[in-house]
Specification:
Blueprint (H helix, E strand, L loop, with lengths): L12 H18 L3 H7 L9 H9 L18 H14 L5 H7 L5 H8 L5 E4 L8 E2 L5 E4 L3 E2 L6 E6 L2 E5 L6 E7 L5 E10 L3 E2 L4 H32 L1 E2 L2 E2 L4 H29 L4 H30 L10 H11 L6 H12 L4
Parallel strand pairs: 1-5
Antiparallel strand pairs: 2-3, 3-8, 4-8, 5-6, 6-9, 7-8, 10-11
């Protein structure tokens, strides 16, 4: 199994924790109050800011997973998840971590343009269990899963039975359709009809699993902030002369939601460690599916409960809590449903943990 070149393989656990803490603090500062910007970008095209993309690139986020021998930072999956989590907390729309995960497998000629922020390359995957079809002549047909904010991409990196390929939506035999999403953004669906593609020497097998894990970490951030906003509301909102958060039934509900959040956080951290330690493919699939299933369950339950606990105000567009529900509705099913990931985790372990 391919394993990225990491500088932390010999680092102590305390040193690694210090690195993760520093990255988290840095991302938190950079993304502070980014929710305001994210709200303003709804219903725009491409739905994110190219200037912000360049800023993130200058911070080194695009080179997180690129080995030091190729000019990258050589960091691991936990570092990607740490940033994804902070982005989820602020609903940051830029799909920069998806691009960062493609970077290690890109040819040198494409990598330079990606790392300096001049070129945006996003991964596009076929649905789990399905593949693009290749004819005897080598032409490719089929459809890929939705690509969030895909209109902002210059190219897409896809996996075919012949290998990975870089394509543009304007390439011959490639068509794209744009779909509005619940969060005010969009997704692009690529379809191929006897398209002639040039393969590159790369595999997206691990990229796909890391993308699913990064998405889980993003949903962790979404769920965390949704719960924090709700707990603050319960402290401030009064009924019958006392904060509604003092009512025992609501306290029990808050404890249940906090437990869901703890289980999700634990699953994401375990999956990140497993990938970094070079787990076998089947084990990576198992731990990523555990994290993704937890992410869907927790984010759905927490954001929906948050709306209910806010009462009528939770349904208004002015209330930020609604943005977290819409983001969850948009992202939860990407790269596999909860049912799919539970079944896949079971198939690789025999027991759903």
């Amino acid at each position: 199994m391919h394993k990225h070149n990491l500088p932390f393989e010999q680092a102590s656990s305390s040193e690694r924790e210090d690195t993760l803490s520093a990255i988290t603090e840095s991302a938190e500062k950079v993304l502070h109050h980014d929710r305001v910007r994210s709200r303003k970008l709804r219903f725009s095209r491409p739905g994110f800011e190219k200037t912000k993309w360049k800023e993130f690139a200058e911070l080194g986020w695009l080179m997180l997973r690129v080995g030091e021998d190729r000019g990258g930072l050589g960091m691991g999956s936990p570092e990607v998840c740490a940033i994804a989590r902070q982005m989820g907390r602020e609903l940051t729309p830029e799909p920069i971590l998806s691009a960062a995960l493609t970077a290690p497998v890109l040819p040198d000629r494409e990598l330079a343009g990606l790392l300096n922020g001049d070129k945006i390359i996003l991964p596009a995957f076929a649905s789990y269990g399905s593949d693009l079809v290749v004819s005897e002549s080598g032409a490719v047909s089929g459809q890929l899963d939705p690509i969030p904010y895909g209109l902002g991409a210059d190219q897409y990196l896809i996996q075919t039975p012949l290998g990975a390929s870089l394509v543009k939506a304007s390439d011959q035999g490639v068509t794209s359709s744009v779909h509005e999403t619940h969060d005010g953004g969009h997704s692009v669906v690529l379809a191929f009809e006897q398209a002639s593609l040039t393969a590159i020497d790369a595999s997206l097998t691990l990229v796909r699993e890391e993308a699913a894990l990064a998405l889980s970490a993003y949903l962790l951030g979404v769920a965390e902030t949704a719960l924090e906003i709700t707990l603050e509301y319960l402290k401030d909102r009064e009924q019958f002369g006392k904060p509604i958060g003092s009512f025992q039934a609501l306290q029990h509900k808050a404890v249940d939601l906090s437990l869901e959040l703890w289980l999700l956080r634990t699953a994401v951290e375990a999956a990140g460690r497993g990938i970094d330690e070079g787990a076998a493919h089947d084990e990576v699939c198992r731990i990523v599916s555990l994290a993704k299933a937890r992410a869907i369950k927790a984010a759905n339950e927490i954001t929906r409960s948050a709306i209910q606990l806010h009462g009528g105000i939770g349904y208004t567009d002015e209330a930020d809590i609604g943005l977290y529900l819409r983001k969850t509705m948009t992202l939860a099913g990407l790269l596999g449903s909860e049912r799919f990931h539970r079944q896949r985790a079971f198939s690789f372990s025999g027991v759903m943990k």
